[in-house]
Structures are given as structure tokens and as C-alpha cells.
Amino acid sequence: MSSVAFETQRAALADVVAIPVTPFAEDGSVDQDAHRALLRRLLDGGITTLTPNGNTGEFYALTPEERRLVTELTIDEAGDRSTILVGVGHDVPTAVASARHALELGAQMVMVHQPVHPYVSQSGWVDYHRAIAESVPELGVVPYIRNTQLAGVRLAELADACPNVIGVKYAVPDAARFAAFARDAGLERFVWVAGLAEPYAPSYFSAGATGFTSGLVNVAPAVSLNMIEALRSGDYPAAMKVWEQIRRFEELRAANGSANNVTVVKEALASLGLCRREVRPPSRPLPEGERAEVAAIAAGWSI
After folding, report:
1. Which of 8, 120, 209, 250 has the most CB atoms around it within 10 Å of its CB?
2. Which long-range contacts (CB under 8 A, 24 or more apart) does 281-286 make?
């Protein structure tokens, strides 16, 4: 399939790439009604790219059946209102099965989670992604890169073998490394998505990113859209005004090695009455003493 065939997918990555939360019911199962309501809120708020089974969706805490359910709910609820980028990962057969499931349901792309194997070689990284990408040539494939050792030339090597590798979620917290990696891989060849969300979006956009992922968008879609509008127009002072607005929220999420990354988002949603605050281990709900600050931030965004 030629790169022309992936134009819609490429455009969808050059945007706010929302990572929806997975709300849980009182019995601990996926709360399907709350999940649909949260997805509708994102869609009604103007979000057009959704990533079911991302890290903010607690990908690694879901069972295989729950991951399939989340994919199905998202695709069914979004219909033609959104481009769907399904998170896949774990061992190669599991990732391939998830990617094929996504294809069967009508998703347009898959995001391949960073391999969490303790021993990742650079050529093995290429082999892992190649096995997944070759199993679904019809889908756009987006590697999620958190590996500081990986060289940009390896991504180029992967895309030479798999032309459906069209974008990158780059999540190494180093803007200079990102700028170099993107140029070594091919700046124009891929759509570069700032994978560390709004706090890193201005610096990564200045180096060539055209989209960013967001968990905050679950709480305040308008805030995320304000930032991408400013960045698209090259208005960095306006983007940094939004950055100042979201700074504390994102600092709370990033503290202690991102221990409360999902927790803070769900706490904000709970304060707005949109879902339960429960997260699964190894995450944990926010202690009561810290909940008021999150609620005040969410209320201040006039949602």
C-alpha cells in the first residue's frame, strides 16, 4: 500500500491524539456506560483521534478480554467521527492478534507499545515492530518510543521494510535528542507525535512534531485544542500560556516517576462526576488530602 493511501491516518496523527481512560465499575470491571459517555464527551469536544488501550487507559492492567472490549467500545461509539489508533503490545503473537482484531473492527492504525522486555537490542526492536507491521499491511503503524538507546536510523530501516510505519509517538524526555532522532530517521518521512503530552509539546513542535498525545484531554478537551491551535499557527507565547495553565496538573501526574499519571486524570474526572476514581495496581487512588487540589484545577478550567 502506498504512502498516499495513509494520508488520512497521517493527518489524524498531526493533531491532539487522545488517550482515553478506562473507567471501572464498583465491582472492578470495565464500566461500559461510563466509558461510552467519556468517549462521547471527547468527540463532542472536538477530538478526532482516539487511542484505546494507551497507557492512560491502563493498558498493562487490563486482561486480554478487556483490551478487546475497550477496542470494540471505542470503535462502536466513535463510528466515523474519529480515527482510531489501537494500542497493541506484549509478546509478538499477542500484539499481532490485537492488531488483526483492530483491523477486523475497522480501526485505521495501531500504536505499538514500547517493548517492556528487560533486554531490547536495536535490531531486535526492528524485528519486533516488523513482525507486527507486516501482519497488518492495511493499517498505519506507530511505534511508541521511550528507548533512549534507539537510533533514528533503526526507524528508517523499519520503514524501508514496512511502508505502513507512518508515524512515531516519541516519548524520550529530551527535546534535543528528539530533534536529532527525527532528522536521522527522516523528518518528513514520518508524522512526529510528541508522546509526553502538553508539557513537552511546545519544545517538540519547535523541533518538528506536528501532533501530541494527551491524557489531560479526558478532563478538558478545549484546553488541549487551544494548545494545538497555538502551535499550528506558530504562536509559541500563546502555547506557553496554555502550558502555564496545565503545568501544575501535569506536575502532579509526573511526580515520583509518573506514579499518579492516570490517578490524577481519573481524580479530576471523579471530581466532575464523570467516572469513579479507582485505578488498578500498581497505580493507586490519590490520598484524600491531595484530592482537593486536583478538583480545584479541573473546576478552574471551566469545563
Report:
1. 209
2. 281/61, 282/61, 283/58, 283/61, 283/259, 286/260
